[in-house]
Amino acid sequence: MLVAFVLLGIRVLAATEEPNQPAGTRKTAKATVISTKGVIDDGLYHSIRRRTEQALEDGATYVIYEIGTYGGRADSADDISKFFIHDVSPRARTVAYVVTEAISAGAMISVSCNDIVMRESTTIGDCAPILLEGKLEGVEREKSESFIRAAFQRAAEANHYPPALLKAMVSQQVEVYRVKNLETGQMEFLEGDRMPVDANVWDLKNKELIDSKDTILTLTANQAQEYNVARAVVKDLAAVVTFLEQRDNVTFENAPAILETNWSEEMVRWLNSPTVTGILFMVGLLGIYMELQTPGIGLPGLVAALAFLILFGSKYLIGLANYVEIAVFFVGLVLLAVEIFVLPGFGIAGVLGIIFIVAGLFGMLLPNSPGQIPWPRFDFEWNMLRNGLMSLGIGFAGFVVIALILARYLPKSRAFSGLVLAAPGPAAQEAVSMTAHPEQPVELKAGDEGEVLTPLRPSGKATFASAVVDVVAQAEFLKKGQKVRIVAIHGNRVVVKAC
User: Fold this and answer.
1) Domain assignment present for 396
2) Are residues 386 and 463 in the same domain?
3) pLDDT at 126 over 80
4) Which of 71, 111, 320, 445 is deepest in the core (most CB within 10 A)?
5) 7 lies in a domain?
């Protein structure tokens, strides 16, 4: 009996002293902050993956994503969302810290984190799909919205956010009410077309409209906290850390490390912007055009090669272009060059070259594996294709305009006249270009002999009698003054070779 009383007294003393030893119950934690700002695209996705893996390898137990974005590509946001839920959450606590706004695709990646903490006077929501041109209506809108709604539903289930509110951020026709559950005493969010009818369980008379069918839900920081979308509203990053320490009963040993994007990642994102893509395509075409007008292989050809290398290389780094598409494109360039410089006329090599070039450019605009046909499967991929084609179309239009200007004015410029094939001199100007004479037409036929007026590399001008004729040399470059003979005439295309 004495021993039993002594043991009981020791146990009571231990239980009494236990609350006075909080140091034994609080865990230490390590946080890393990853900046997630600007347009959401594949470049940002790969950057987030790299920095997150670095943070986890360094022992981070909390990964805080600073979010400030108006959105971007739906497919990239979906990749980031799945990465947060499936890869990061099992290894660390993910926190979306909204520092300015989390709109559209920004809202998608925010709700994919375990917690959302919002800075004062910030907003979140409005993730309805849009097109840069035209409107999404009917079945097309529903197809796009269903994909995004599924991503939000996935996040709501994984991280315990109100599903009805997240759905209202995507679809305009969703009506959401806040209704009190009389059995639990909790406020719940219900869709208008799925409203319960049992007045004994739900306080239907005092239901509160949160979002109507005429709007897409966007919440301020205070609203998000009130509706259980945001866990807290804070003033700064230090307050985020304090909130996590108090809620999770942890202690962060040091101030969170901040991982920013590096210069190479920012450059890749910049190179993949629609504007820069169009400019690179235009520069590449201009380089090829000027190379065909100049002797030998010079600066324009190198500039063209560099432009296309950067264009495809930047797409390759973000997973759009693969090695098959790059190889197809450059094989097309080789076939086209063979057709222009080696083979007379325009035949199979030229046609195949154009087909290969178009196929390579088309494949570059869509994400696909090397063994997969590059064809859109989802609505966001159709949007990617349309936007990519628009960039290339603008680049091609710019090339045509600049090429016409160069053809008209560059030969007259003293500084650049040596870079292009100049027009014939004053003596030759007395003749008329092509096969016409001011007074009497000149009939040309195979076997006629003439003299090279401008270097043929392989195209240029030659004189036959008193007419100046646009000609193409057959499988060779010819110098000015060299004698040539016509070997074939295809419409306005006159093929010659040295006598």
Assistant:
1) yes
2) no
3) yes
4) 111
5) no
The lowest-confidence range among 58-62, 348-352, 357-361, 388-392 is: 348-352
What is the pLDDT of the chain when averaged over all its residues? 81
Domain count, the chain: 4
The last residue of a domain, from among 418, 433, 460: 418
Range of the domain at 466: 421-498
pLDDT at 19: 38
Same domain, 153 and 228: yes
- The confidence score (pLDDT) of residue 410 equals 62
The alpha carbon torsion through 93, 159, 220, 79 (nearest 10 deg) reads 80
288 band by pLDDT with thresholds 50, 70 and 90: confident
355/404 same-domain check: yes
Q: What is the mean pLDDT of residues 459-463?
A: 84
Pick 461 or 422 by higher pLDDT: 461
- Do residues 36 and 138 share a domain? yes
Domain endpoint, select from 418, 446, 468:
418
Length of the chain: 499
d(CA 387, CA 59): 41
**Among residues 20, 94, 22, which one has the least CA distance to residue 251?**
22
Q: Do 437 and 319 belong to one domain?
A: no
Cα 251 to Cα 386: distance, rounded to the nearest angstrom:
50
Judge if 294 and 409 occupy the same domain: yes
**Angle in degrees, 0-180, between the axes of helices 299-317 and 274-292, rounded to the nearest 10:** 150
Answer whether residue 278 is part of any domain. Answer: yes
Name the pLDDT band for 1 (thresholds 50, 70, 90). Answer: low
Query: How much is the pLDDT for 435?
Result: 46
CB atoms within 10 A of CB 346: 13
Does 18 map to a domain?
no
pLDDT for residue 319 is more than 70 = no
Is the dihedral angle over the CA atoms 110, 111, 117, 118 positive or is it negative?
Answer: positive
CATH of residue 470: 2.40.50.140
- Phi then psi dihedrals of residue 259, to 5 deg: -110, 115
CATH for 90:
3.90.226.10
Do 151 and 247 sit in the same domain of this protein? yes
Amino acid at 62: Y
109: amino acid identity, one letter = I
As a whole number, mean pLDDT of residues 151-168 equals: 95
